[in-house]
Every structure is written in C-alpha cells, then in structure tokens.
C-alpha cells in the first residue's frame, strides 16, 4: 500500500511508525510510503487511519504478519527437527544444503509443514527425510532448502520473489544434493545407456540452474541415497558434459574461482544451448528458470504462454547485454544453396512477418549454438566479407521489433530472392532476408 498525497505524508509516516513499533521493525526512512507485507501463518488486525486530499480521513483494516519479512527472505528446514525457520536473506542464513530433484506426485508443500501428523503419509516425505539425513549425517549441515516445502506457492508475491531470487539461493548454498530418483545405486554412471545418462533430472528445466549456479560441489545421489559421485571428479564431470553439453571444466571450477563468473562469461548463445531440449511442467517456466543464468529479473505471469515468456526474457537480456550471439539461433548452412533449398531443409527465413523477428521462439532454437563464441571486434569478419571495417553494432527494441544496423552483402541470388550475408561478432553469422 502506498499513500502518495502530499497532505497525507505526516499521517502516513506516523502510521508506518505505529506498525513498525508493533512489529519491532525500524521506521522506514522514506515518509509517505507504507509497505504492507505478505501475511504469515499467524497475524493480527488493528485499524489504520491516513489522511487523503483535504481534511477527510479513510479507515483501513490491514492484516499484518507477526514475523514481518524483508526483501529476499527464505525459509530453511532444520535437518533434525524437520521444522521451517525464517531468515531475512541467504546471507543471513546459517550454512545450508539445497535439494535438487524432479517433482513427483504427493510432494510435501509449505502448507503441509503446518500439519506434521499428515506429512509422513505423503510419498514426498521420504525424499525430504532422506535429504535431511544425508545433509546432517554425512556433511554436518543442520539446514536444508527444498523448493517443494520452502516456498509458499499459495502466495503469488512470495512465489514471484522466490523465482526471481532462486539463482541466488542456489549460489549461497554450501552443498547441492542432486537426487536422481530413477537411478539405482551401484551402477556404472559412465556406461553407455546407464540409468544415470537417461535420468529425468538432466532433462528438466529447473535443474539446469541448480547444476551450474552453486559455487559448491554437486553431489549426485541414487534412488536409495547412495552417492554416485560429485562434479569435483573429472570423470563424472565429463559424463555430465556429454549429457548436458555444459563444459566439464566449468562444472569443476572450484569455489574460490566463483563458477558464476565463468558461467556469465560464456556467450548468450552457448548458455541458451544448455536449455535446449529441457522440459518444464508449466510452459512459462522454460523462460523463468533461465533468469538467474542471464542475470535478469522480470514479472512472473503464469498463463502468458511459453513463447511470450521467452520473448520477454530475451528482451530483458538485450537491455542488459550487447552480446549479439543472442541472434545466433537456428540451423546452420554449411554450403551455398538456393532459398528454396534453405526452406526445404528446414532453415528459418527471417522476415518482417516472422512472429518474433530476429529473436528465437524457444531455447530449442539454440540447439546448435554450443560452440558460439562472442568476439570483441568485427574487423576480421568484415575483412573476410571484403567490406570496410565498422564499429560493433548496437541494437534495441522498438514497437516494430529489434532495430539494428549491420553491414550486408548479397550472398546468393536466384528467382526466389536474395540471401544476404552479414558480419556479426560471433563465430558463424548469417541473416536470411526474404524479398
């Protein structure tokens, strides 16, 4: 709630002081704005009065949480008592592990944790208990974070904040436990056709950021909670690279070198390729699960559809990055061909009528972009095209799509149109323009 009228500033500041005194919180420094936070399990009511324009008064009745929450709060599960505790931020929390897994039926929810007499009846309880035992007994960690029971998904504000900050939750963890419920213990993970290679965990959208976000080691666990190995082991890290396409050296980057710095140094196209072929239950989550990897935030709008969510994600990336490899999607032309051949072989023709123009419609369009590397200068590219050197192009969104100036030259001409070639600073650069 915000009261912006100048005449109400003093009254609103007094109201804010009154609330914060009751909650034991400091008085906000910006007078005139009263922040009403999400309601907790236990709450109480008291009347408020604020002045509006003129001398009239309005009465409000607000539900104020007993334990008020700051921005980027988190809940952690105690690994011995199985109780949830609130912390104001990952930085304020004690050392904790995170549980990375594929959701199944009857998972334990935040609401279930208020009914301890029922949670043991749900199938998901065995997973929670197993993770707590491994974290506490094998790694000495008293706290665990799990996305099934540590987020109140009935609260849209909390859910949106959790999704936008989830990457930071993973980064701050001391340990990531990757539970592969479809992998039996005792098998050779590196073997061709192993259950490990075929695990659902490697195909899910949300597990991608869990794999690369944490600066700590990832411990893979079988269905019976036997350790398969860790990403600190070169042999297993190379197997994970074969499965996911993520450079094994990136997975093995030690804590002191900050893996996230290495991750975000990779081209946009390469990072997008990691998400190709992955699945999420809700189509929008394919985009939302990538926000932390590209260091962007955006509103969570379930119901907008996967394409719209991914389009918004790319626009947010463009606003923060000048990496043109975001346009390096689609299949590649290995040798000259006619435009008819281009279409016949499934290559995409970019035109003004294309729904998203130069932007991709899905992470799947970056399937072949694993080896795209952003380069600092376009000089050698323009030289190879036989055109004068140009500055690195800048680009931005308009109401007609992406506006960008690029040097182009005719590449192929036949009865169906002209194929133009353009110099863009990534490894392979071609833009197809339909006449």
Automatic annotation (TrEMBL):
One matching Pfam family: DUF8212
The DUF8212 domain, residue ranges: 308-411
Superkingdom classification of source: Eukaryota
InterPro entries per record: DUF8212, HET
Heterokaryon incompatibility domain location: 96-182
PANTHER family xref list: HET DOMAIN-CONTAINING PROTEIN
Name of the protein in its database record: HET-domain-containing protein
Source species of the chain: Trametes cubensis
């Amino acid at each position: 709630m915000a009261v912006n009228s100048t005449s109400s500033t003093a009254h609103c500041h007094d109201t804010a002081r009154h609330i914060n005194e009751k909650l034991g919180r400091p008085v906000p420094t910006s007078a005139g704005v009263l922040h009403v936070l999400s309601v907790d399990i236990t709450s109480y009511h008291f009347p408020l009065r604020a002045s509006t324009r003129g001398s009239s008064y309005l009465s409000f009745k607000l539900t104020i949480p007993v334990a008020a929450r700051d921005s980027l709060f988190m809940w952690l599960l105690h690994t011995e008592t199985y109780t949830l505790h609130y912390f104001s931020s990952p930085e304020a929390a004690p050392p904790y592990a995170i549980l990375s897994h594929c959701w199944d039926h009857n998972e334990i929810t935040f609401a279930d944790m208020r009914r301890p007499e029922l949670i043991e009846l749900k199938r998901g309880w065995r997973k929670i208990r197993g993770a707590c035992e491994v974290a506490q007994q094998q790694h000495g960690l008293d706290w665990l974070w799990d996305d099934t029971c540590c987020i109140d998904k009935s609260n849209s504000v909390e859910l949106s904040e959790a999704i936008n900050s989830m990457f930071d939750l993973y980064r701050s963890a001391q340990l990531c436990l990757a539970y592969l419920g479809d992998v039996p213990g005792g098998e050779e993970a590196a073997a061709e056709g192993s259950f490990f290679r075929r695990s659902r965990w490697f195909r899910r959208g949300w597990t991608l950021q869990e794999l690369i976000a944490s600066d700590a080691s990832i411990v893979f666990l079988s269905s019976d909670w036997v350790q398969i190995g860790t990403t600190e082991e070169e042999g297993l890290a190379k197997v994970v690279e074969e499965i996911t396409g993520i450079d094994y050296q990136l997975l093995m980057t030690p804590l002191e070198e900050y893996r996230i710095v290495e991750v975000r140094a990779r081209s946009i196209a390469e990072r997008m390729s990691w998400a190709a072929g992955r699945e999420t239950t809700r189509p929008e989550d394919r985009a939302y699960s990538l926000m932390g990897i590209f260091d962007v935030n955006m509103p969570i709008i379930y119901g907008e559809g996967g394409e719209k969510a991914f389009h918004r994600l790319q626009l947010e990336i463009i606003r923060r990055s000048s990496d043109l490899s975001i346009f390096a999607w689609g299949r590649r032309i290995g040798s000259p061909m006619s435009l008819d051949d281009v279409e016949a072989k499934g290559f995409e023709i970019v035109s003004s009528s294309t729904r998203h123009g130069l932007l991709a419609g899905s992470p799947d369009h970056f399937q072949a972009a694993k080896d795209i590397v952003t380069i600092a200068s376009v000089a050698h590219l323009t030289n190879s095209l036989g055109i004068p050197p140009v500055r690195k192009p800048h680009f931005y969104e308009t109401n007609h799509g992406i506006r960008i100036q690029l040097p182009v030259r005719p590449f192929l001409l036949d009865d169906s149109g002209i194929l133009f070639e353009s110099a863009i600073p990534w490894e392979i650069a071609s833009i197809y323009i339909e006449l």
